[in-house]
Amino acid sequence: MSLLTPEWWYKNIKNYYELGIYKEPDVKKYWSPLKKISEDQYREIVGIVEEPAAEEVKIEQGDPVERT
């Protein structure tokens, strides 16, 4: 059994990033090509926030059609 679990990788990569030891490209390599963390974990560590799709924004701004 490996001691290097997915949780271990995530925790340590995040810690190194927060300490300034790793930069964004360093974290990205652990997602791809190394596959030690998921894409969601990579985005969480480096603080990437997804923008809502254009159609979602349009709906949120209000639909002019009256609904009953």
TrEMBL record:
InterPro entries: XkdX
Pfam families: Phage_XkdX (PF09693)
UniProt protein name: XkdX family protein
